[in-house]
Amino acid sequence: MHPFDFATPEIRMLWASAVLGLVQLMIAFLFSIGARGMPWALGARDESAAPVGKVGARLERAYRNYLETFPIFAALVLIANGMDRHTSSTVWGAQLYFYGRVLYVPLYAFGIPLVRSIAFTAAMAGIVVILLGIWPAT
Asked: What are the structural domain ranges in the chain?
């Protein structure tokens, strides 16, 4: 039996989003090492870092942006799970967040402005959809 057999779709999207964050971290780290060298990566980093280039800088910013949105997404998915509130809205919102974030990374890395903003907005809309899906009924 697979561990995800009992997981909700929202929890599976949370897991996938966490993996996405690790992938983003590793890609940004590899660009950083490529531009700054291993001595810088292994050192105390007291000195100013060398620039990582346009793509490397975009990947670092995309990762920082992920760090700003992921905790909110994770909290809402865990709240939905704890409340046992799994609706089409919470599932759709979790999927919208994940796939929006997946699209956001390469769009930002390649400097595609308008479509990148649409992907970001889709991911943020996913957070709002989850929030509305768990909003207490009055």
From this structure: 9-134
